[in-house]
Amino acid sequence: MIQEVNIRDIPKTDFQVLKKPIPQSSNRSLPMMFNTQLYTGSKGRGKTYALVSLLSMYENSKISDGTTDYDMRVILIAPTAYSSANSIYHTLKSLDKKDIHLEYTDELLEGILDDIKAKSDEYQEFLDYKTIYDKFKKLKSEKKLEDEELELLYSYDFQSPDEVFGDIKPKVNFLIFDDLIGTGAFNRKAKSLITNLTIKHRHLKTNLIFTTQGFKQIPAIIRNNIDIYVIFKSASYKEVLDKIYEDLSGYLSYDDYKQAYEHATKDNHDSLVIINNSMDKGGLDIRKNWDKKLLLK
Fold first, then answer.
1. Distance CA 279, CA 61 (A)
2. Residue 6: pLDDT band by 50, 70, 90 thresholds?
3. Predicted confidence band of residue 196 (pLDDT cuts 50, 70, 90)
4. Which of 18, 202, 235, 268 shows its CA 20 to 30 Å from the CA of 121?
């Protein structure tokens, strides 16, 4: 038996840490941002359909951090983006043609990340300029402004924020790596880029989405950071049960996983969804597709 005894001279201290609010969907049944998703299963099972269904639900909800509304931006890297099998991608309102890329290169990914950061920086400059402009309009005098504040106002000729920046909104991003095994996306250099992104994507307000026919072909560093698993039937039953479970063993028992998988994937185009960052903060959220919660007994 172990007994705990408080140490008198070590006070219990509670620290209050102020965190910036994270934008979330108004649909509280959708996964929390910012997440990393992995869709795995044999060809033709419905990975793209499930992915687009989720993004469409985000599109049809309001995304806000409580004070500011956000726009959505989807960026797709997929060799088969224009194939008839993937035509459903083009139903997404937040996927612009210029954000569809057929070939992965390290330079492409670096450019995408630079562009995401540039748009984030532009919105921050809008906020900074608006704060100073509102201060100037309230004071009605240049003399009460700091030199740096005046410099910013002069750089835009004292125009209103709307005149300078237009109808600008911050963005949440969804970056899709669709079936890129064998394309060079996971070679050594790319691994370092994508590994870095897997760790830091939240700072860029970006959700990461990977699709694959071979679960273990995705590098371990990515698999170890997955928040949402969408698992379809695979050509190898053993891979689904044993290899995928290796990465899920910290979340649920083997028997529960097997029972949930077999129940959820009885029909060819259905999937087992495991969400490890549910909005309701109730721990692991296990579903059949997006719309049916599974209660394991």
1. 15
2. confident
3. confident
4. 18
What are the residues facing 63 on neighbouring strands?
Answer: 25, 70
- pLDDT tens sequence across 21-62: 899 999 999 999 999 999 998 888 899 999 999 999 999 999
Contact 24, 279 (CB under 8 A): yes
Predicted pLDDT of residue 65: 95
Nearest to 226 by CA among 55, 24, 35: 35
Average pLDDT over residues 226-234: 92
Q: Nearest to residue 70, comparing CAs of 168, 176, 183, 193?
A: 168
Tokens 């959708």 correspond to 30
Of 171, 233, 206, the C-alpha closest to 47 is 233
What domains can you pick out in the chain, each with its CATH number?
A: 24-104+170-293 (3.40.50.300)
Q: What's the pLDDT score for residue 211?
A: 95
Q: According to the model, what pLDDT value does residue 72 have?
A: 98
CA proximity to 78, closest of 39, 45, 127, 21: 39
Task: For the chain, give the mean pLDDT.
Answer: 90
Inter-residue contact 133 to 153 (CB < 8 Å): yes
